[in-house]
Amino acid sequence: QGLLAEIQRDDAGLERLMSAYSPKAAADLRKRSFDPDALAKTQMRYEKLDQMVQELLLGVR
């Protein structure tokens, strides 16, 4: 639950733009600036979630 809360804590505006494709959303994403260094420092949250699900399915957890 904690990992899901961490994942959902992201930028709501960015989530809205990436939720479904539209030409307007694509244009808005192009206008937005991203800091590659800051993005590289974020943890691999979805990968951690995937690992936890796999462990649950395989009976490790």
List keywords for this structure.
single chain, 61 residues, mainly alpha
Number of strands: 0
Structural class: mainly alpha
Distance between the termini: 15 Å
Task: Say what oligomer this is.
Answer: single chain
Strand content: under 5%
Mean pLDDT: 84
Number of helices: 5
Low-confidence stretches: none
H-E string? HHHHH
* Helix coverage percent: over 70%
Anisotropy-based shape: elongated
Main beta-sheet strand count, sense and barrel state: none
C-alpha Rg (nearest Å) = 15 Å
Kindly give the count of domains.
Answer: 1
State the gist of this model.
The chain is mainly α and 61 residues long. It has five helices and no strands.
Provide structural commentary.
This protein is an all-alpha fold and 61 residues long. The protein has one domain (2-58). The protein is built from 5 helices and no strands. The chain has helices at residues 2-7, 12-19, 23-31, 36-41, 45-58. It is elongated and about 45 Å long. The mean pLDDT is 84.
Chart the SSEs and their pairings.
Elements: H1 2-7, H2 12-19, H3 23-31, H4 36-41, H5 45-58
Helix pairs in contact: 2-3
